[in-house]
Amino acid sequence: MNKLLSIIVPCFNEEEVLPIFIEAITKVREELKNLPDCPCDTELLFIDDGSSDSTLEVLRSFNAADSSVRYISFSRNFGKEAAILAGLKNAKGDYSVLMDADLQHPPELLPKMYKELITTRCDSVAMYRDDRKKEGFFRRHFSSLFFKIMNKMSKLNIVNGATDFRMMKRIMVNAILSMPETNRFSKGIFNWVGFDTKWLPFETGERPAGESKWSAGKLISYSFDAILSFSETPLKICSWMGIIFCFISFMIGIFHFVKTLIFGDPVAGFPTLYLMLLLIGGLILLFLGITGQYLARIYLEIKNRPVYIVKETETETHKGD
Ligand code: UDP
Ligand code: MG
Hints:
Elements: E1 3-11, H1 18-33, E2 40-48, H2 55-65, E3 69-74, H3 80-90, E4 95-98, H4 110-119, E5 124-129, H5 137-153, E6 162-169, H6 170-177, H7 186-192, E7 197-202, H8 216-230, H9 233-263, H10 270-303, E8 310-313
Parallel strand pairs: 1-2, 1-4, 2-3, 5-7
Antiparallel strand pairs: 3-8, 4-6, 5-6
Helix pairs in contact: 5-8, 9-10
The chain binds uridine-5'-diphosphate and magnesium ion.
């Protein structure tokens, strides 16, 4: 029997691009089915991430035309990370691939990725962008700065230009699903679980329709989330700042003490005041840092909310009830 590949596609307000996407991916699915040495069956799993346009209707119509096209629809927008989790959780395949709906992750690359995955020893084939020059100035510099800071602050080693376009074996998918955290930064999780990953370069296509869902503000807050979920460095910085402040105030104290002993004290009271300010400020930062270390851990553990809520799937349709 042929192996099954699940193609997971998060969609948020993609009604315009989905008809173009389905046409392109159908051709590639045919090609995968007819690969000479390693034919492979595919299922398509769309995740409608709470779209407010007619994405869900489009997905229903895809499923009506072909039952190997499945979908899961969220009750609201939970973000791409949640959609990725839902896709991996519900994929039935021996292999899974994550890709964007907007054709920026070219479907034509799937056969190449599949061959690479089954013929080499690797557990996953991941794609990185090789065409950063095409991006705007802000986005290009911001994202390479982000990858640098991220790798420095955490124990991860994420390739510059890494995308979520990635094909994985079941063993790696199961490892990802075993990670219980609710604040999910997939690029970090893929790296954290280990396994052998083969990196291939690719050029992102132009989006043929619709628009990118990432504003500058969204990107910045996503980056902070990512760093906080994989690194304790910011908390350590707090503690270190506290220690440094205490040290400085101590040194200034000695300086004033010696100065007063030798030259007398022309401005009485003033040094004591700012020394106390510095010292107390330093101590507050130090303690905030330490408490923060514990608090962050408790906070992450205790929230334990579901990452997403499903409103509808291809087997459970609620049209109007
Ligand atoms: N996406 C999603 N939920 C969101 C934002 C985006 O599922 O909240 C999907 C979107 O439909 C697309 C993919 O994630 O398939 C990448 O989004 P986009 O093209 O907007 O990002 P960019 O390519 O600009 O990084
Ligand atoms: Mg895109």
